[in-house]
Each structure stands twice: as structure tokens, then as C-alpha cells.
Amino acid sequence: MKMGLIGFILFFVFGNLATVAASDTGIPDTAYVECSGFAQGALTIRIMFVTDNAGDTNKIDGFSFPIYITNSNPAADPMLDSTLGVTYSGSAAGGFSALSNYVVPIIDSIICDTFMTCSPAPSPCSIEVIPQPGCFCLNDSTFCCIDSITCDTFFEPDLIRAFPLQYNLIALNLQDSAAIGAGRYLFANLKIQVDDTTTICVDTHRTQTVTLFFLNPNNHKYFPQWLFKCCKVVTTDFGYKSGDANCSGGNPNLGDIIYLVNYVFKGGSAPCIGRLGDANCSGGKPNLTDIIYLVSYVFKGGNAPIPCP
User: Fold this and answer.
1) Tens digit of pLDDT for each residue in 284-295?
2) Could you give the dihedral angle defined by the CA atoms of residues 49, 54, 59 and 60, in that order, rounded to the nearest 10 degrees?
3) Which residues, including other chains, have CB under 8 Å from residue 34's CB and lie 6 or more apart?
4) Model-level pTM?
5) Between 265 and 105, where is the model more confident?
6) Are 38 and 170 contained in the same domain?
7) pLDDT for 146
8) Same domain? 222 vs 78
9) Residue 52's CB: how many other CB atoms inside 10 A?
10) Distance from C-alpha of 79 to C-alpha of 42, rounded to nearest angstrom
11) What CATH number has the domain bearing residue 227?
12) Residue 221 is part of which domain span?
């Protein structure tokens, strides 16, 4: 199946809005969630599907997966890795030519510039003498009119921290790659970094423009069954000792000191689990005092890092 970029865009606009769909013959296809474990501070959740489709015209050539993710514990500070390499690693649709994902970005900051023109006004300035809307008295003898306001937003697009969130995953076979026949498959990975125990639930959602569907090579969509699931991160998942900033396991060592130095002074990666870098359990982000505490423990026989609750 070959389509240009415009056709690709139109497919998802009209495909999602359309109400006519093909029937799913045989056993209904099912999409479901699989909890795949917790390692190095990250919970991995897999979006799976099973199909009995067979025959060239009945295989799967495209997917629309709108996902809704919730978090039970704000203190866990979950962070979703939405990079395509992580999301579609090992995916049955990984060979498709059009892979994308979208989540409403989290705005870290907004900076706005206001442009205005100021002019003398009869004293005292008042609303009655201001000539038009959008103007105001700056002082008794001056009024100003706003010409324009421009704003810039700043956000980190691949590391998403706002929960609950809507996360839309799309895969489409545009270059005649092999369509997907009968079997059980991985579609996508949700890798979520967490700092505390929590429950992450994954469901689908539907709006006027987005819904869960599969597409066959004839561009006919159909709707699979969906099975909702929650995945828990419990205390025993955090098997690392305090001070093990790089989650390498075992007692804190020189590697953890170097890791914290890079984080605190060189803008390096944060500790794999935030509270592990707080070696003296003073609260807040790791800092110089935590590095000194670890140096004392590793090289001078000082007190062991304090486990933070």
C-alpha cells in the first residue's frame, strides 16, 4: 500500500472521523496491556495485540492506538519516555514506514513579550479619554495601547511528566512492507521512570477524532476488543541501597560518587531513582553534601547512606 504524505494525513483525519468500518471476521482481535517488570527505576508496560487474520486482504496494515495513562501516587513523579526508539523497540509494526506518537506536551515555562504604543493624554488620564479598547492609563498624563503580545513556550517533548495523559500511537504501512497476519504480537512499549511506589493504569480513550482501530490493506478499518490493566510498583521493586545513584546494585562506590558529581556539577543524568542520590536524606535534590557524605562512607569508613522513605 503506497500513499503520499498528504494521503497519510488525510487517512488519519478522515479515518478517525468515519463511522463506517469493516467487520472483523473470525475471533475478534484483541488489544491488551502486559506488565513487563521494573528495572533500573523504570516500569515497562507493553501494549500487545492478538489477531487471527489471514489472507493478503485481511492482514493488518495500520494501527491507531489512543492510550490513556494514570498514576496513583504523585510522589512517584512518573516520567514517560516517548522516544520512538524506545516506544517501538521490538514492535511487530517496527518495519512499517510511518511510525509516530503524540502526547500533549508539558509546558515548563511561558515567556511573553508585550508591544505597545504610549501617547500623551489630557490630565488626569481616565477611561473616558482612552480612544479604543486595549488601552490603559499608564499615569495621570499618559495612556498606552497594546499592539501585540507574543509568547514562547518551552517544554521537554520526549520526557513526559504530567499524569493522567493521553498518548496516541500510530503505525502505517506506506511502502508495501509485509502486513501482519495471525499471531500474538508486541505493538509498543511504555517505559515509565518512577521514584516511588505507585500504580500505573493503561486504558484506551475515544474522542471525535481519535479511536482505537486496526486497518487492513484495503484501507478498511475495524475495531478490536480492548482489555484494560493496571501495573503496580511496590516497595520490593526498589531493591537498591541508598547512595546507589546509578542503580548498579550493591553498596555505593566510586562509580556512584562520579555519577553524582556529573549530575550536580556538569548537568549529567539524574540519579536513576531520585531518593537514592540523597545519601544523607536531607531532602530535596542531591547536592554537594551528598557527595561529601558518599566520599566519607566509601573512602573513610563513615556512616552508610541513609535510606529515605
Assistant:
1) 889 999 999 999
2) 0
3) 45, 46, 47, 48, 229
4) 0.61
5) 265
6) yes
7) 80
8) yes
9) 15
10) 9
11) 2.60.40.680
12) 5-106+157-236
